[in-house]
Amino acid sequence: ASVVAMAPMGKKSSPKVSQSPTEQLLGLLSSSANLPDDLSELSTSLYSIRSFMASSSTSTGVDFSDMPYSGALSSSSSSSSAGSLAASLASALDTFVASLILNLRNVGGGTDDDDDSGDGEENPNGLEQRAGGGGGGDDDDAVLQAYAEKKTREEKLSKLVSLTNLLRECAAMAHAWTLEMLSPESAPAKSASAASQERQACTSLFNASRRMHDLLLALAQEAATSAANEHDEQGELANAQASLADDVARLCEAWFAFHVAPDAHATNTSTRNAGRRAAQDVLDACGIVVAELTTQCLPFLLIRALCGGRPTDVKRAFAMRDSLTVLDFDDEESIAMTKELLLRCSVSASFLRSNEGRKFLSHVMLVDVEMMKEVYACVKAQIPNASSAELGWYGDVMFRAWRTSSGADLLTLESWVFGDLLDCAVLTADVKVAAKALQVLDAALHKHKLASSGIGKAVDETLHRLYEPVVFGSATAANASVRLNACRVMVSSFPLRVLDDADADAQILQQQLHAMAKLMADGCPQVRAEACRGCARMLEKFWELLPARVVGVLVGRIADDLSADAASPLVRSAALEGLKVLLGQPLAHAVLGRAIGSVGVALGDASRGVRRACVDLVVAARQIRGMPDIATDVQLLESLATDPDEHVRRRVGELLFFC
Q1: Which of 262, 82, 240 is nearest to 165 (CA)?
Q2: Model's pTM, two decimal places?
Q3: 395 neighbors 414 (Cβ within 8 angstroms)
Q4: What is d(CA 562, CA 426) in angstroms, rounded to the nearest whole number?
Q5: CA-based R_g, the chain, Å
Q6: Which residue among 151, 203, 227, 282 is least packed, with the fewest CB closer than 10 Å?
């Protein structure tokens, strides 16, 4: 079929010929064995026909289940003729794509070799001529040679751009056709002949898609190389190659979207599930393995998300998460690059700050047991220098993985990840690093203890199983840093519970309270101060859960003993801060009213931190109705007159004049 003159690129108009646009397109693609010299005209014709067919398909309201662009066919076309034309068109598209790729490789590879070899042969001769004192014609020859080389490069660049744009048209056509052919919309029943032709068209279309998929990573690399090429001043080739790579990736994503299980994307509508099952039946009948389109597509999407950091790229990678299950993680040679990219994603802010990115990373952790260990090793290396937000994101990834895991994955996650994090939070000599490991555990498990669903119960069971053998023994360790870390872990995870056994539950609760009481009497001032603050937070949050007798003992220990600790101002300050925290629990006001009457003497403490904590406590108590005064007006006036700290004087002034 001859190539007809079409409208300029970018405008949608109907070709003025007797053939239907689909038949024109078939003739156009069938001429791929001998590509014309003017590839831009072929690209314009291809774009114009495709644009007209697409506009016709949206305006006529015709059923396109038999083949795409059928709106451009006459209404008298039978289903069998349309199916035959679809099969022929798909086969022609496959052949056309193969021819374009072959020409692209020949133009992109052969010319450079020829140029390099030519330079290597001519330069020595030129040097010999100049050394021999050649005439002035040598300069003219050099200018002519440089002009010829420039002309050759420009022709090569123009042809590469034209071939790349033609492949873009093919990728766009294949993308639209794939969505149409495998659409989840219900399709009318087809005859055996029409079904066979549909399978032929689907197979040819997939073959064309696979040919373009095999170029994906090479295209991405060549686009980066072309961007740095001084001969591509306008960036025309680089832009065309980058756009082609993106179009091919979207084509592969379209195929894989119909390959995944019906419930994989949290869509419970029966229509969509039925459509996905029907699409999978078509793929199975054609013998198509869509996993073949993921080996380069997934790494390409990961590279885009890592380099660009755009949320849309992360979402595209998340949509392809099920493709991880078809990769062979035991084959180190084939999976090495993808595994390295996944490990980089596990600590990338682009993935961590995105909700879809964290879901993707949790899925990565469950793909393979060894992969889970490597991801955790990368995360663990980042913990000492991570920010609070990043620590929370790491914990969220682990929680999502834990919530959806089972069997061997669950055991590995609890023992290898959570167990090691617990050891880091308790046994690490650097208290700051231990506190950061505890922040990850807080986000991963502790903050989900009170969840109303079954998650809260599962978290309690996991914490009891992991923490009981470690925390109580560490609370009595010889090393003060270990005792301090154990105190923080115990407070953060309080209460550890045994839900199925009331006696065991009461026993472990008593064990935790006894351990906290011992820590408040610890010989290390830092441990006593941390235990005081932690005990106050526990009482404020779980006042109703604890026995009244135990509550009275703990409050008395804080108000009477620790607030007057003669050995350390750090402990006295922590006790006053803890009492202020307890004022936030309304049920504690009656007990506190009887216990804190004597702490006002701390206004005259030698430590500035203790005086500040005391005046803050006095201000907080004055704002609660019915709470007795902690300090008399005489004590406040004396502090206002003699205290050297401006913060204390300002707060005392507020008490005297505004409270």
Answers
A1: 240
A2: 0.81
A3: no
A4: 25
A5: 37
A6: 151
